[in-house]
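Reviewers of the previous submission asked for a worked example of the structure-prediction workflow described in the proposal, so we include one complete record here. The input consisted solely of the amino acid sequence. No template or homolog information was supplied to the procedure at any stage.
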Amino acid sequence: MTGLCIPKIKGTYPQFSDKEKKIADYILENPNNIIHLTISQMADDLGVAEATIFRFCKRIGFKGYQAMKIALASEVVNQMQDIHETIHEGDDEKTVAEKVFKSNIKTLEETLQVIESEPFKTAVDALLQARRIEFYGSGGSGIIALDAHHKFIRTGIPTAAYMDSHFQLMSASQLTDEDVVVLLSHSGTSRDILQALEVAKEHSVRTIGITTLAKSPLSEGVDIPLYTVSEETEFRSEALASRLAQLSIIDALFVNVSIGRKDVMKTSLQNMREAISLKRI
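From that input alone, the workflow returned the following structure tokens.
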């Protein structure tokens, strides 16, 4: 995966070792200086081996230190102000609202920049070919799974969403290689979701994962990983911020599938509108 440096560091940060966090902190705190340093100078400043820095660059998806510096230089030139980090308890309500909105916009922009065309197209194709689509998530990600079901039911493809781990396992055990399961977990380490993934794989089900931009059991275990980028702040957890990115990926998948099933969806939507009209007075 190539592209932005800072979002990758922030997204992977919880998975870093102590030495990697030391390098990450140095880059995040001194991005303007890093682009003028050689790998030797940075190693001396940090008191680590050059090989440690090189491995760090590889860990976040770059071929080496120079490639990381090129990406970082591009970001420094176009860097947005991290206004969400400046929220204070004394801010008035409108100011807090503005900072939250701008933080959300930044989350979406950074997630958009790490979406790669080929995996995303593969995910859309898998959904278009699916006999049945199921969405699994726990906690906050479970709400996103329900939202996905609410959208995809319009496509005419049989869908379901499960937040309960027992239902996830039971349902996954009934699926086949003609079906697709979309698993949502911000951390990518949820035990319940990983167990559901294992059962789905045992039955040759095609799997799509929506998770943070970091190496995790979920991102490595699914057939098609799709990534989100979000940051934790004092007043909002990283997982909470990721909801908007997860929702937007689901929306983008849904619209693509809708385009691919345009003719079928006309009938499906008409039937749904007639059914829902019974609820109106």
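The chain has two domains: 6-78, 114-276. We consider this example representative of the routine output the project will generate in years two and three.
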